[in-house]
Amino acid sequence: MQHTGLLFLGKTRPQVGAASNGTFQLQLLAFDRIAAHQVEPWRLLWTGPAAQHFYETHGADGPGAGTALRVHCSNARAYQGGRAGAEIVAHIVACDIAPKRLQSAGA
Question: Which of 41, 51, 54, 81 is the most buried (most CB within 10 A)?
Fold first, then answer.
C-alpha cells in the first residue's frame, strides 16, 4: 500500500543504523495530525543514499520537532504498541521538508 501526505516530526531524535543488507538506514518518528486533539504516530524507515543525504544535511538532531515533511511511503502496517496505542510503520520512498507558509502582509 502506498501513502502520500504531510506528517510532522516528533521530539524523538532520528535513529541511524544499517539495514539487514548493510545500507544506511534512518528512522524517524512523525505524526499525522488527524484533528485538533487527535494524532497518529508513524515510524518511518528510510534506507539508501537519499536517506543518508537527508541525515547529513540536517544533522543528528534532525530538522526539529514540528517540522512538516512531505512523504511518499510504501509497505505501511499498523502495530499495537501497549499503552501508547497503535503506530503505523512505513518505508519512505521519497521525503522532503515541506515549505513554510508565507505569512500574509500585516500578520
Answer: 51
pLDDT tens by residue, 7-38: 999 999 999 999 999 999 999 999 999 888 88
* C-alpha grid cell, residue 76: 505501511
Residue-level length of the chain: 107
101-15-33-11 Cα dihedral, nearest 10 degrees:
-80
Query: Structure pTM?
Result: 0.85
3-state helix, strand, coil in the chain (%, to 5): 10, 55, 35
Angstrom distance (rounded) from CA 2 to CA 48: 19
Run of H or E residues at 95: strand 86-97
C-alpha cell at 67: 517540522
